[in-house]
Amino acid sequence: MAKKRGYETVRDMVFTLAAVGVVVVLLLIFGRHSAQDPVKRIDYTLKFQQASQVAPYPLLAPQGLPQRWRATSADFDGVDVKATTWRVGFINPNEQYAAVEQTNGTPEPFIADRSKHGEPVGTVDVAGEQWQSYNGEKYRSLVRTKDGVTTVVTGTASYEDLATLAAALRTAPPLPGMEPIPTARPTV
Q1: Cβ proximity of 153 and 162 under 8 Å
Q2: CB within 8 A of 49, min separation 6: which ones?
Q3: Which of 41, 46, 43 is nearest to 172 (CA)?
Q4: Do the beta carbons of residue 62 and residue 170 sit within 8 Å?
Q5: Are 126 and 117 in contact (CB under 8 A)?
Q6: Coil, strand or helix at 87
């Protein structure tokens, strides 16, 4: 009597799927698991010092933040001397984003852009200076305009964390052997 065809095919398929399932389970159990921080840290200090040498105003970046504040990005755009921008971004200990942004350009559009169109909601005292607080749909911001320079401390972090970041802001120490480029002064 001849065997019925088709049963072997189904049986072989079930055995194959079982074997693949065992391999997948073993990979999940013994596969590589990384305990490393998925946030890629950067060291912004050299970029900060270099940008400070050519910026037409004193750039600010935090000094002395706890280790759990992780710098993730830094950028200086000095193409337009009348509207340079400086930014350094962080992930704070609560896994929220916070950034320091500066410009010597027109304050209103810069504040609107960097605060993600937040609305002013009050003032906050940070290390003895008054900062305007903004609240937006996604971002909170602290804003200060002083001596023609607008500084925005912004992100998804709490106002308390933004104030911690703002209070840590300092100007860059000069690079060894280099003096800052003097700003042009009109001759009389």
Answers
A1: yes
A2: 172, 173, 174, 175
A3: 46
A4: yes
A5: no
A6: strand
Which candidate, 181, 161, 27, places its Cα nearest to that of 153? 161
Running DSSP on this structure, what letter comes out for residue 89? E
List the Cα angle 159/164/167 in 5-degree steps.
Answer: 120
Q: How is the chain split into domains, by residue range?
A: 45-104+118-171
Buried b (16+ CB within 10 A) or exposed e, 133-162: bbeeeebbbbbbbeeebbbbbbbbbebebb
**Per-residue pLDDT tens digits for 132-177:** 999 999 999 999 999 999 999 999 999 999 999 999 999 987 666 6
Looking at domain 45-104+118-171, its CATH architecture is 2-Layer Sandwich (3.30)
d(CA 57, CA 152): 15
